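Bumping my old thread because nobody answered last time. Still need a sequence for this structure:
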């Protein structure tokens, strides 16, 4: 196996190849240069660095080589440096290129002037043919541009069987599944609390430190509420 991250030249010397029925007809000197990449580097992705984005309903990373996933792959959305939600992703290839795709269940809206980052972890995507050629961490930093009604990378305060409301300075969460992962942060990304419910809890409450807007993430869905 050739060491990665290097450029090579394959050479066929003159006279090494001849026609089957004409041994006097042979090749001239032949050579071809090729690279063995050191990492899986992104060619392009849907969001440019620093771009102002109103909303997205999917996200794609493209690579210059054919790729596969090394295991379950997830992309995490950060708001002002605080992890908000993690989305499942899948990696595939087609016609000498590779792609990692994320499809959101619904549009994600990004509040105007707020800083966001999508992060694809290192070593979750590899070359289709070599598991030792993997991606480095990929970070896409961008700025929200949405000013209408709705929320940023989050749903309304109700989705499926789960409901979130504020009562008397507390966030009240009902309709939980067993072992739900819950995190609460302020709108500017300051963490308030993070915990996992036990196997029997279907509802819980979280004391909120003051008035304002809070983002509550439950498993892979987030909700924005006002206290």
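Sorry it took so long. Here it is:
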């Amino acid at each position: 196996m050739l060491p990665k991250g290097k450029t090579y030249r394959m050479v066929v010397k003159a006279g090494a190849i001849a026609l089957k029925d004409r041994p006097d007809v042979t090749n001239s000197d032949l050579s071809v240069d090729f690279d063995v990449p050191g990492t899986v580097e992104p060619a392009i992705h849907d969001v440019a660095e620093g771009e102002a984005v109103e909303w997205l309903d999917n996200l794609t990373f493209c690579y210059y080589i054919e790729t596969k996933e090394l295991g379950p792959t997830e992309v995490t959305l950060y708001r002002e440096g605080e992890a908000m939600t993690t989305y499942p992703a899948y990696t595939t290839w087609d016609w000498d290129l590779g792609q990692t795709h994320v499809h959101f269940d619904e549009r994600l809206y990004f509040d105007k002037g707020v800083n966001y980052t999508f992060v694809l972890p290192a070593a979750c995507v590899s070359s289709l043919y070599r598991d030792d050629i993997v991606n480095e961490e990929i970070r896409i930093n961008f700025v929200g541009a949405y000013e209408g009604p709705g929320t940023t990378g989050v749903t309304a305060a109700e989705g499926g069987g789960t409901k979130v409301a504020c009562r008397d300075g507390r966030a009240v969460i009902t309709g939980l599944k067993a072992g739900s992962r819950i995190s609460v942060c302020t709108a500017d990304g300051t963490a308030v609390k993070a915990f996992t419910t036990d196997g029997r809890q279907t509802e819980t409450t979280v004391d909120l430190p003051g008035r304002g807007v809070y983002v509550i993430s439950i498993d892979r869905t987030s909700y924005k509420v006002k206290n």
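The chain has a mean pLDDT of 85. Let me know if any region looks off to you.
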